[in-house]
Amino acid sequence: MYLEYYGLKEPPFEMTPNPRFLFFSAKHREAFNHLLYGIRERKGFVQLTGEVGAGKTTVCRAMLEALGDSWASALIFNPPPDPDLLVKAVANEFGLAAAELGVLETRAKLNEFLIEQAAAGRDAVLIIDEAQNLTNHQLEHIRLLSNLETDDRKLLQIVLMGQPELRARLADPILRQLRQRITVRFHLAPLTRAELWPYIEHRLVVSGATGTFYFTAGALWRIYNYSRGIPRLVNAVCDKCLLAGYVEQRYGIDFRLVGRAVRELEGRINV
Fold it and tell me: Domain ranges in the chain?
């Protein structure tokens, strides 16, 4: 609705994890480099944690783009509760037909696929999101998947991605075998106050902004106080700000407009 008014080619604050919009804050760059290092060096397991909306999925998608076509990838965003179904979901994400197979047959087929990939010069990476919700039984199945290997290399690199609670889950003594295999860990922190405007500006530029509108210092202060630097919340409030600015036919996003945007997000528009 507001794109033409602000001279934008596409919405700048969409919630989808589009790597084109990834802003490399110091922490996001570090997370990206940790992922690439752990996977390219075949460390087996990589752990990435962060608050909801911190940008973990976007970083992972950017990492997959950086890996290129020499890697086969599988992304599990909502792991099924049954461990056997989880293994089948992994096989399905790699493009294998496993619906009618038992768990042992599925694992054997997956192993065969990974060996074929290795013979063709390709590696494989599995990314599991919301890993803090996995049961110990599910995590044990994932650990067993990491045992798929040849004499000289691991056939599958695994990224466990989740909220901060994942760190507590993996501290359980029952999971010590899995924990000992995680050699690369990183916690993705929110944006700092100094990074807020560069983040917003980056997304606006990617969307085609030409500098015909602006955010005041007061607006940025209020956006940060509301979002606490969580990119998803920044996106949500900035999208509402642009809509409010369009409704009022204003090019400047100020403290008051941010307040209106926050009230709309919180369902308090008439308060």
Answer: 3-16+193-265, 26-188
Tally of CB atoms within 10 A around 102? 12
According to the model, what pLDDT value does residue 212 have? 75
> What is the model's pLDDT at position 55?
95
Tens of pLDDT along 173-223?
Answer: 999 999 999 999 999 999 999 999 999 999 999 999 887 788 999 999 999
| Percent of the chain predicted with pLDDT > 90 | 62
User: What is the chain's mean pLDDT, rounded?
Assistant: 91
| Residue type present at position 133 | N
Class at the top of the CATH hierarchy for domain 3-16+193-265: mainly alpha
Q: Which of 66, 42, 79, 41 is nearest to 162 (CA)?
A: 79
Q: Which CATH class is domain 26-188?
A: alpha beta
Bridge-based pairing state of the strands 252-253 and 182-188: unpaired
